[in-house]
Fold:
Amino acid sequence: MIIVLKKGVSQEQFKEVTDMIKDLGYHAHVIQGTERTVIGAVGSGRGTDKLQAMENLPGVDNVVPILQPYKLASLEVKPEKSIIQISDNVKIGGDEVAVIAGPCSVESEEQIIESARAVKAAGANMLRGGAFKPRTSPYSFQGMEEEGLILLRNARKITGLPIVTEILNPADINLICKYADILQVGARNIQNFALLKELGKVDKPVILKRGMMTTIEEFLMSAEYIISGGNSKVILCERGIRTFETATRNTLDLSCVPVLHERTHLPVIVDPSHGTGHWKLVTPMACAAVAVGADGLMVEVHPHPDHAVSDGIQSLKPEKFSEMMDSLSRFAEAAGRTLPESS
Amino acid sequence: MIIVLKKGVSQEQFKEVTDMIKDLGYHAHVIQGTERTVIGAVGSGRGTDKLQAMENLPGVDNVVPILQPYKLASLEVKPEKSIIQISDNVKIGGDEVAVIAGPCSVESEEQIIESARAVKAAGANMLRGGAFKPRTSPYSFQGMEEEGLILLRNARKITGLPIVTEILNPADINLICKYADILQVGARNIQNFALLKELGKVDKPVILKRGMMTTIEEFLMSAEYIISGGNSKVILCERGIRTFETATRNTLDLSCVPVLHERTHLPVIVDPSHGTGHWKLVTPMACAAVAVGADGLMVEVHPHPDHAVSDGIQSLKPEKFSEMMDSLSRFAEAAGRTLPESS
Amino acid sequence: MIIVLKKGVSQEQFKEVTDMIKDLGYHAHVIQGTERTVIGAVGSGRGTDKLQAMENLPGVDNVVPILQPYKLASLEVKPEKSIIQISDNVKIGGDEVAVIAGPCSVESEEQIIESARAVKAAGANMLRGGAFKPRTSPYSFQGMEEEGLILLRNARKITGLPIVTEILNPADINLICKYADILQVGARNIQNFALLKELGKVDKPVILKRGMMTTIEEFLMSAEYIISGGNSKVILCERGIRTFETATRNTLDLSCVPVLHERTHLPVIVDPSHGTGHWKLVTPMACAAVAVGADGLMVEVHPHPDHAVSDGIQSLKPEKFSEMMDSLSRFAEAAGRTLPESS
Amino acid sequence: MIIVLKKGVSQEQFKEVTDMIKDLGYHAHVIQGTERTVIGAVGSGRGTDKLQAMENLPGVDNVVPILQPYKLASLEVKPEKSIIQISDNVKIGGDEVAVIAGPCSVESEEQIIESARAVKAAGANMLRGGAFKPRTSPYSFQGMEEEGLILLRNARKITGLPIVTEILNPADINLICKYADILQVGARNIQNFALLKELGKVDKPVILKRGMMTTIEEFLMSAEYIISGGNSKVILCERGIRTFETATRNTLDLSCVPVLHERTHLPVIVDPSHGTGHWKLVTPMACAAVAVGADGLMVEVHPHPDHAVSDGIQSLKPEKFSEMMDSLSRFAEAAGRTLPESS
Structure:
């Protein structure tokens, strides 16, 4: 921590600052500048929270943190990129760009099986589908719950695709782990710390979606909750942040992909469906995500988007998804990556 | 819903749109404009989600909702302001401006009793204190949990002040209800729908804090979750939104107070401590909150802010809080409101 | 400047950094931390831009500025608050809260004279009115230009109220100075440096409106342009920033008033009309602005808002403005301030 | 325009609304909904500003615009993409991805000539360099002005590269037109309408950079100012918007490229240097821009970034730029586009 003193600080105020730094177990290293005095708090004392609170002292102008607050998620602690194995032949984080596709919600057996077959045929290697849905309105469809999970399991049986589904309530963790291959934490739960702590205890990969107003540092701190709890299989997902712009549902922050790759070993995937909110923008942004280094994509595909119970506007029809995969294959090649092999 | 068609829409595309409107159980009312054709979907058919998804149709430019999505929270349904009774002599929503004060976290018996006595002496009529803490870092102090709740109960015994404390996990609801008079939902859980649903089932008032990225409409929809679940004792709390400005921790959106008063019967309180992040800004913003019509304030007060385990920078010392109450009394009078009577 | 080195920096990289610091004319003060090495660049060398560019060096993690970049606008340079004299009996920055009111645009002689009389009768002490209008659309009314300035001069003759009007083009400066008592720089021109430089050369007060995405630091830097050019009569005006919230036209950032008062000696006024975009919100936010310490208000008033050529939605009718002034007088008193005396 | 009436509107209020619609020259088309009454104002009456101001009427809840406010910039008016010819062999908007590169500021003859040769060798087909610089601080380097323009002309003589340079002041327009091939309007001047109007009168292409707070609709309205003034040679440039995220200087909104391509015929280029603020992020975001359909790139390249007087942190060294062009060629091919031929 760097403590910047006020201009014209008194000798007494100066002493109060250095005394408190020492009381907290740090060494106070003083730099006398031309206009300001600056103090480095060196060592590993009793916490950055308490140093930060020194901004309260009358002689202190502000306190500047130097170190990143995340450890286990950082490249400094683990310099090689993590590859997360999902099933025998599916992983996220290697040269192959993972492709997770499927409808927003599981709506019926027919719908989810048709979706699973279609996305598999087009080259996806994982199936998404929500059984517990976080909806802005209490009057909107809230998901098929366990019945939806059973249908997802059936879809996996038929297609072999691993299943990604969302968890909303820590109480549902055992239930969902029975069916899902990957648990997804939605944007609205990015700082639901009760949920993150529970996910630290399970032995399943977790896709952690960035919140609409989550900084990259906070995003990594939420990952740190899961890893420090004991589960290092965390996949980060950029899905758009909230800005003033209303032409798109969110603003997909693709620059966060290379920024994250400089800071963390965790794989980073991109969701261009929520990121834009319009199906026409999904393919160009998916291609851009691969160009920028994303380790995977998560795309909403629905056999009949204009009858979908949720997110129909941003869902691709199967034939559009198939065209997307064709475009994507050219960009993956340009990026020196591969797409999952169709089977 | 208003469906705006594209310029040059074909007769076939037009028919597809009107057919689907009818299929969904609405009447299609067509307006031929000079440049565009616009269709009103009139009636109460099978849901706005499905009308909204018509943006997918080739002839449709966009779909504009007309009605507010919240009902029970709206002034249209209940035109008189709600007054929420907390205890025999404490309520929120009437002429008296409620004042909730206390430390961010319960840290020790001495700290919480000292805080409770001090805020009571200065004129607060409720005590706040966190026993379960939502912290950005897993390595920060996470709260004293049940031990903290017991200390809060002791503080109530001594001072008579009702207790406000935060709930993070639906699983803790019975535990916290045993001790607290008001349950608080933090900004990070504003769209934790699993938690909101549980709070709809309890018979305790809930303070719902606006999230950093929550629109006023979404804020009311989250209240609607609790009310539609059966608990109408919801108090809304503005606590700052996230913007590009970094001089303050958040940007306190005071205009949301009169906007909410035009839309909802629920009481609206303001938290200038989180809203600004700096103790020096708390008093001016508290006075402004009362000027703008807030029904209450929630203020962080700590006997020794520079030793607080959390939020020390934004906490008032008891003597500063007392000065704040003096200023506030003048502004409350100017607003035709009263402050709680000191006892 | 504080230069934070990367973890595991090599001896060679370290030398490159310290050599460059010395080359730029600074002294390199090294702090060896437990995890990182940090270097303070002390002295007054060849510029912060060049120190900042050291982030390019392979051994450098990031560079943290310590000093504020504004000088003449800062309280450190001039610790007493500035009071800016507008005319014999009108000033901004003292105990009296200045009240500038009038229509968005000058539309006709009748409209501006009627407006001027009405705002004066209600207690305003300055008249606003735009003759050159910055409109989002080239097809919207662009202002009456010099004809409008002449009408403003007539309104001053009749009422005695000093005139505030906007300048868009550096080329218009002499023309506008002939008529106006205060020149206004609109939010869209806050970083129109060509215009700011010209305003540094004139002997007229300038109201500088914060841009929709202007940080407080940038706001003060724009004031610094005018002051460093030779004109210290700058009045800062908060008028709402752009956020994700769409319920209001902008989000009025009232906390910027006390933040600015801690940093600058310049007077700070508030425009609740643009700040909210709805006339119903103007009075509560005006009262809040006074509660928070604003030195003045700028309010749109129009005799017939539903026929106004611009900004009708946010304009008060004269009778509503008069009611606002009544409310305001109570809040001004609570704040220990006065309102202009009606004459 | 759609006018939504309040619930429970009186017969009198209803009449007031329909009368005013007719007075303004529109036909009032009424839709009686289940809960609300909605009126379409049909025809081409006296302006959307005046319809919008009807929100002031007591019976009106809100007013919803249906038509886009831009005309000449829209695809509806000109459905084929515009290709803008810059010189005999350089154009923007066709299959070839234009590459504009060079330093932020012209600093010296040696620097600009070295830069021009380097960017040409690597495959750029236009040279950028600022002679008039918009700097946040009045104490920062403000540009070499005409001397810089002369150096740019020399660089063109030597390399044949057309010159792009920024204009800040309408008064400089003749001077800059003497030297430049393309005039650039910076982000801070996107709503400097005095400048935009002047640019409507010149016969030179204009690169219009999106402001930090500019919506896509406002962006097109600023282009409309130039086109409606008589100059249709407008190139739009996305360069990052301001959000809450501080890990990057701005948030590059790549989704705006396909959104713009759906709405306008104007070419769209991307500036990944300002868009990210860090040279390491320039190459990935440049590749992503091409993947998403950008018609060109604008990249800062400096022979010695750590000695640059401005923007050194985000400037590529010539060898890094050359590597970028190599990567870019693969993505351009994947996108079915070409890069300029090296000469």
User: Anything to note?
Assistant: Chain C touches chain A through 23 residues (CB under 8 Å). Chain C has eleven helices and 14 strands. Chain C has two domains: 2-64, 84-334. The longest strand of chain C covers residues 27-32.
